[in-house]
Amino acid sequence: MLSPRFSRVAVTVTTVAILVGACSSSATTAPTAAPPASTGTAPSAAAGSTAPSAAAQPYAGQTVVVNTIEGQEFTAFKDELPAFEAQTGIKVSYNFIDPTTYQDKLPIQLAAHDSSFDVFFIGSENLPKYVAQGVVEPLDPYIQDTTKTPASWDYTDVLQTARDVCTTPDGHVYCVGTHLGASMLFYNKKMFAAAGISGPPQSTDDVLADALKLTTGTQSGFCMRGDKTQNLLDPIYSWGYWLPFQNKVTGYWFDSSWNFMLGQSPYANQFGTWYNQIMTKAAPKGITTYLFSNCESDLEQSKVAMWWDDSSFVSDLTDPTKSAAAADLGFTEIPCAAVNPQCVVVGPWAGFINKNSTHKDAAWQVLQFLTGKEASTYAVSKKALANPVRTSVTQDPTLSSAYPADYLAAVAYAGAHGNPVLLPFIPEGVAIIPPISLGLSELASNQGSVDSIMATMTAGVNAIMKKAGYPKPVPGVSP
Amino acid sequence: MTAEQFDRAPSVRKNVRGALDPERSFLALIALPALVVMIAVTAIPFLATIGLAFTNYDPLRGDSWSIIGLDNFTDLLNDPNIPTIIWTTLYMVTAIVIAETIVGLGLAVLLAIPMRGISIARTLFLVPVMTAGIAVAIVWKVLLNPDYGWVNYFLGLLHLPQPVWLGDPALAIPSVVIADMWTGVPFMAILLLAGLLGVPAEHKEAAVVDGASARQVFWYIEVRAIQPILIIAILFRTMDSFRKFEGVQALTGGGPGLASQVANLEIYQRAFVYDQTGSAAALSVVMAIIIIIVIGLMYWTLRRLSR
Are B167 and A442 in contact (CB < 8 Å)? Predict the structure, then answer.
C-alpha cells in the first residue's frame, strides 16, 4: 500500500508532468480559417446570368480542396470563387495555411500520398523534387484537351519564364504560374539623398559602397535574410552578378561537368568577400537571426536603407497604412554584369494538382480559374497582385495605376533578364542546401576566413553530389 | 489440479489470487489505455526509426529504397559537423539542467515560506509551464533583439554592454538557456516545492532545538528529504532538454553557423527539410544511445550521492 505522503508527492509530480507534456508540445497549426472576405466586389463570371444547365456543369457536386499560404494574392483570388462555384457547380474548399507550417507540412503530405487536397500553390522551384517523387499531375494533357480547357484560357498568354519553370526538360508541364517573384532591390530614396547618394546602385560594388556609406550608429545600410532557416534565398538572388548562366537545368549552380560554380575561383572569393563585408559591416546587428519580416520591418521604419529580396513585398512596402516609409521607397534591378545577361533570378509561384487527387478534372477547372486572366486582373485591381504572369494582365492599365513606375520598370527588366533556375532542376536541388546555408551563416558571423568557409561549403556540396552519382549524364547539362 | 494441489502450490495460488485481486485488476485496467498509447506513439515509431536508420529511404526515392547496412552511421562518422552538433547539444543540456536546478531550488525555498498571498504566487508560477514553447521562444527573440529588445534596453540604462545575443556565436546557446529558464525554472520549482512542503515540520523544529543553523536545516534536513524528487526532477529536465527543438528553431535556427545547431534540430532538418530520412533516423538512434548513457550515468551518480 502506498503511503499517503508518497501518494501526495506522486500525484503532484505526475500532474505537473502531464501539464508540462500537454502544454509544451510543439504548436501545430491546423489549417486556419479563411480571412475576412474582401470588401471589394469581385467580378462575377456568372453574375447576371441564368443558372447553368446540368450539361454545362459536368463536375457539379464535386468538392475541390485548395491549399495555399496566407497571402494577399490568394485572398483576392478567393473573392471570385462564389461566382465560379455558381457557374460550375463545383464546391471549392479554400484553405489558408501559415507559411512556415505550410512549407513543412506540404512535403510530408505529398510524400505520404495524402489525397485530402486537390490543388496547391507553392514556389515553382519545388517542381524537380515533386516530379522526382511522382506526386504532381502532369498538366499538358489537360491543357491540350479542348473539352477541358477552352481556347479563352490561353496558356501562351503566360510569360515564357513562368512557363519554363513549370516545364520539365522532357517537355511536360506540371504547374501554372500565378505570380512572378523576382529578385529586387528596395531602397529608401530619402536616406540615399541624406547620405549624398544620387541614385540607386548600378553594380554589386555600388551596393556595398553605398551600404557602408549609409551605415551609421542609428541605421544600417543594407539588409538580407540572415537566419539560417531562410538565409539562402537572398544570396541566390545576388549570385547572378558573379556567376555565368550555364543552362536551363543548372542555371549558374553547376557547369556542364557538374562543378559547383560558386566554389570555383575567382567566384568563391569574390562573392564570399562581398557577402562577408556587407553582412558584417553594413547590416543590422544580429543579422544572422533576421527573417524576411525583420528586414521588411526595418525598411518600413527607415532603420535600413536597402533590402534585397523578393519583388512580391512591394504591396506591403507601398501601403502607407503598413509602411511608414512608403512614400520614400524606390525599386530597382541592378543592371546585369557582362558575365551574365540573365542575372535576375525569378521564381514564380504556381498551382499544382496533387497526383493523388480523386477529383483531377474538377481540380483542373479550379486551377484554370485561379490562374486565369480574370482572377489576376481582379487581384491587381485590389492591389493584391503586383507581379502577374499573364502578358495580357501586365499590359492592362490596371497594373500601371496600382503600382509605382520604377517598380514596374524593374519588373520589366527582370522579365527581360530572367533566370528561371532558382534551384538546380535536379532531384538533389534541395539536398545541397545545408552546407551552403551553413557557410553563408558563418560568413555573416565572421566564423573563419572567407576562403576556408567557401572551401568547406564547396566540399560539402561536392560530397552530396558525389554520393548522388554525379557527374552523370543529364539532358540539357552534360556535354 | 485438485483443490488440495492448489492449496499446496503457493506460487500458483499467489499468481491467481493476485490476478483476481480487484485492486490490482483495477490498476491494470486504468493503466491499459496508457500502455496502448505508449506502444502506438512511442514504441512503434521508435522501432520504425531504428529500421529506417539502416535504409536509404527518403521521400524522393519513394518506393525504390533499399537496406544499406551501416552506411548512414558511417556517413555520420565522416560528417565533420556531427561532433560539433553533439557537443553543442550536451553543452546546452548541461547548462539548462544546472542553471534551472539551482535557481529552481532557490525559488522553491522562497515559495515554501508561509506568507499571505503565497498561494497566488505559486499559481502564477504555473503560467510559464503552461505556455507553448514556440510562443516563449518568439517572445524571447523580441526581448533579446539587440536594437529594440527590452533586455538590451535595461542593460543600456545600467551602462552595461549590450551584446548581440542571438547573433554572436558565443552567446547563442546561453541565450537559448536563458529563454528556456523562463519555463524550466518554474517547472523545477513546482516539483521541488511539492517535496519541500512534504518535509515534516517536526524534523526541522527538532533540528533547530538541537542547535542547527538555518543553513544546516536546509542542507541536512530539507535537501536530504527531497532528494528522491530532486533526482526525478533533474532526470525529467535532462530528458526534456535533450528533446529541445522549437525554442532553438525559433530563436536562432541553429545559427550562427553551427553555434546552436543541436541534435534535434539537425534531425528535423535532415528528415523534413532535406529529405534524408535514413540519415535522420541514424542520428536519432545515435542520440537515443547517448541519452540513455547520460541518463543512466546521472541516475547512478545521483543515487550514490543520495546515500
Answer: no
Detail the DSSP E strand segments found in A15-116.
Answer: 63-69, 91-97
Mean pLDDT, residues A451-478 taken together: 90
How far is the alpha carbon of A295 from chain B, nearest alpha carbon, in Å? Answer: 13
Rounded to a whole number of angstroms, the distance from the CA of A81 to the nearest CA of chain B is 33
Three cell numbers, residue B106? 532557490
Mean pLDDT (whole number) for B14-30:
76
Q: Establish how many alpha carbons lie within 13 A of residue B172's alpha carbon, considering only the half-sphere containing its beta carbon.
A: 28
Q: Which residues contact A311 (CB under 8 A, 6 or more apart)?
A: A180, A181, A182, A183, A184, A331, A386, A387, A407, A410, A411, A414
Q: In angstroms, rounded to a whole number, what is the distance separating the alpha carbons of residues B30 and B74? A: 44
Q: Is the pLDDT of residue B29 over 50?
A: yes
Of the partner residues A227, A285, A444, the one whose CB lies closest to the CB of residue B253: A227
Q: If you measure CA to CA, which chain B residue comes closest to A437? A: B257
CA distance B148 to B153: 7
Q: How far apart are CA A189 and CA A183, in angstroms?
A: 19
Who among A12, A229, A445 is closest to B194 (CB)?
A: A12
Residues whose CB falls within 8 Å of the CB of residue A38, separated by 6 or more in sequence, listed in order? A75, A76, A79, A382
- Do B164 and A286 form a contact (C-beta atoms < 8 A)? yes
Cell numbers that stand for B169 in this block: 556565436
**Interface check B258 vs A, CB under 8 A:** yes
Identity at A159, one-letter amino acid code: L
What kind and span of H or E run contains A321? none
pLDDT above 80 (res A49) = no
Distance CA A319, CA A404 (A): 11
Q: Could you tell me which residue, A196 or A124, shows the higher pLDDT? A: A196
Q: A182 has which bridge partners? A: A346
Q: What is the DSSP string of A382-433?
A: TT--SSBSBHHHHTSHHHHHHS-HHHHHHHHHHHHTEE--SS-SSGGGTTTH
pTM of the model: 0.79
- Interface with chain B: mutation pick from A16, A19, A428, highest number of B CBs within 10 Å: A16
Burial of B197 (0-12, 13-18, 19+ CB in 10 A): middle
Q: What is the DSSP letter of A38?
A: P
Give the HSE-up count for residue B282: Cα atoms under 13 Å, Cβ half-sphere: 24
Q: Chains A, B: CB contacts under 8 A, how many?
A: 133
Specify whether the CB–CB gap between B53 and B257 falls below 8 A: no
Cell 528553431 -> residue = B249
Residue range A122-140: mean pLDDT, rounded: 89
List of chain B residues whose C-beta atoms are within 8 Å of the C-beta of residue A288:
166-167, 252, 255-256
Confirm if A263 and A270 have CB atoms less than 8 A apart. Answer: no
Q: Which tens digits make up the pLDDT trace of B187-232? A: 999 999 999 999 988 888 899 998 889 889 998 899 989 998 999 9
Beta bridge partners of A91: A63
- Write the pLDDT tens digit of every residue in B130-170: 888 889 999 999 999 888 899 999 999 999 999 999 999 99
Compute the distance between CA of residue A164 and CA of residue A174 in angstroms, rounded to an integer: 10
Find, in chain B, the residue whose alpha carbon is nearest to that of A441: B257
Lowest mean pLDDT among A92-106, A172-186, B193-207, B269-283: A92-106
